[in-house]
C-alpha cells in the first residue's frame, strides 16, 4: 500500500512539473561558471528536475546497499554465536523450556494461613520438628 501511494505521488509530481514546464517556454539566460547561454526555460526546468531525481535515486540506492551489507554482517554475527554459550545462561534456558501446566492446586491454595505447620515444607531437611 505504501508503494502505491509513493507511485501516485511521483506521478502527480511529474504531472505538475510537466505542466509548469510547458507553461514556461520563454528563452532565459543561463550562467554557468565557465559560460553563458540562452536556453528555453522548459529545458532548464525539466533538466533540473531530472538531475534532482537522479541524485535522490542515487542516494537511495547507496543507502539500500549499505543496509544490505549491514544485514549480511549481522547475520554472520548471529551464525557465529555458539548455541552452547547461549544455553548456559539460565534466563535463556528458562525461555527455551516450554511451560508446564499443573492440574494440582498451587501451594498458596493448599496452605491455611491459620495453621503455622501448613507453611512448612515436609521435605525440608532443616525442619526437625517432626
Automatic annotation (TrEMBL):
The segments labelled Disordered in the record are 98-130
Domain Lipopolysaccharide assembly protein A, first and last residues per copy? 24-81
Stored InterPro entries: LapA_dom
Q: Which UniProt keywords apply?
A: Cell membrane, Membrane, Transmembrane, Transmembrane helix
Return the Basic and acidic residues bias intervals: 117-130
Superkingdom of the organism of origin: Bacteria
- Transmembrane domains' residue ranges: 37-62
- Protein name, per record: Lipopolysaccharide assembly protein LapA domain-containing protein
Amino acid at each position: 500500500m505504501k508503494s502505491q501511494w509513493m507511485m501516485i505521488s511521483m506521478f502527480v509530481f511529474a504531472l505538475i512539473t510537466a505542466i509548469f514546464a510547458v507553461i514556461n517556454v520563454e528563452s532565459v539566460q543561463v550562467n554557468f561558471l565557465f559560460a553563458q547561454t540562452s536556453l528555453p526555460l522548459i529545458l532548464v526546468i525539466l533538466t533540473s528536475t531530472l538531475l534532482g531525481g537522479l541524485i535522490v535515486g542515487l542516494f537511495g540506492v547507496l543507502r539500500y546497499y549499505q543496509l544490505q551489507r549491514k544485514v549480511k554482517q549481522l547475520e554472520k554475527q548471529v551464525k557465529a554465536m555458539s548455541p552452547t554459550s547461549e544455553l548456559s545462561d539460565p534466563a535463556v534456558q528458562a525461555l527455551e523450556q516450554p511451560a508446564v501446566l499443573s492440574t494440582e492446586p498451587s501451594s498458596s491454595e493448599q496452605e491455611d494461613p491459620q495453621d503455622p505447620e501448613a507453611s512448612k515444607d515436609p521435605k525440608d531437611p532443616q525442619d526437625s520438628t517432626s
